[in-house]
Amino acid sequence: VTRSWREKNAELQSKLKKDQAIEKLKQKLQAKLDESERAVKALTDEKQAIELRAKNASQKHRQQVQELKQASAELQTRLEDAGIESARKLQELRKSLATDMETKLQELRQQKDTELQQLRRQLQDDSAANQRSAEQAAEARESRSCAPKLQHRLAAVELAAAEAATAPPRRPSPATSWPGTGLLGVCCHTPRVGHRGAASQQARRDAPGVRQAGGGNSRESRHAEAQRLRQRDDEIARLTAAAQAQERELARQRDESRARLASERGPLGKRWPLS
What we know:
This protein is mainly α.
């Protein structure tokens, strides 16, 4: 009986140990189960949070995409409007530039025409002055060429006066009765013969002084006339050189204007007649 009780007690002890071991295992399993449930719950919560964040992010992304599409459409519209406005402004700018260029070219042509007219008038005035100077020079040369003839006539008058003073009085001939005719008509314009002797004596007395004064005045006048003619020739040469320089300058300006108009003719597509 004691052995059986011992056996039973041993069995009970063994069973108790087994039960305790099982209980410990159950506790461990329950703890692991609780831990697993907590981990699953945490994972589930995290998954839900991730899904919520993903949903929110997707919604936000879709909203951003929509905003980007709308902004892109607005930007495209603004770009198109800006392109149209730029094209319109560019067209207006081209028209304005063409108008300004045409106005400037017209003003330039008018200015060049005015300068050409002024130069032509100046050349005409210079030509007229040169012509007058040439005529005056011709008159001066003619007067210088007439001076010896006048001296010869004065000598003839003195000779006639001397002959008349020594010759007896006689009736005047028709050739010498009128003033300004015959040899004595140069210095004597009286029809009365009685005064011819007195006039001849007065002419003989005045002849040396007249000849001397005439010679002195003639020399002075010839010197003054020569000096005046030299000055006039110098002035004519200067005016001629100035006219030639103006003609060269006018030709240069005309060539420059033609070259500038030819270079500006391309962008405008117009041809301007050159004067």
